[in-house]
Amino acid sequence: FPPAPLSFGGTYIDHSQCRLLKTNLGNLRIITPTQSVMDRLIAAAVWNEPQSLDQAILVAQHQEKEIEWAELDAWVVKEKIISKKEVVSFYSEFKRDLPAK
Fold first, then answer.
1. Is 47 in contact with 39 (CB distance < 8 Å)?
2. Alpha-carbon gap, residue 59 to 36, rounded angstroms
3. Secondary structure of 19-78 in the HEC alphabet?
4. Per-residue pLDDT tens for 50-88?
5. Is the CB of residue 54 less than 8 Å from the CB of residue 42?
6. FRET label pair with 32: which of 2, 23, 73, 89, CA 20 to 30 Å apart?
7. Higher confidence at residue 100 or residue 101?
8. How many Cβ atoms sit within 10 Å of the Cβ of residue 35?
9. Axis crossing angle, helix 85-93 with helix 50-62, rounded to the nearest 10
10. C-alpha atoms less than 13 angstroms from C-alpha of 69 in its C-beta half-sphere
11. What value does the mean pLDDT of the chain take?
């Protein structure tokens, strides 16, 4: 797991925004499915990585009910990646309209 502070693009994520997984060895903070999609989308958009786009799609497909679309929409606008072809392709895959700028 990357060292703190955790961020996706320029958006800082406080540790309290992560999920807490309780294990026999103690608690483990993990990112949410929405945060995982953010991580893969920013990599796809900034570094033009097709594999990162594929990973974002796979996470969202397998965790679709867990994706916080309003949070993701706001983040895409804030990061100014809304017009990147990878983001357009991601939203198209889920038949979702791009958020308003």
1. no
2. 7
3. EEEEECCEEEEECCHHHHHHHHHHHHHHHCCHHHHHHHHHHHHHCHHHCCHHHHHHHHHH
4. 999 999 999 999 999 999 999 999 999 999 999 999 999
5. no
6. 89
7. 100
8. 22
9. 30
10. 12
11. 92
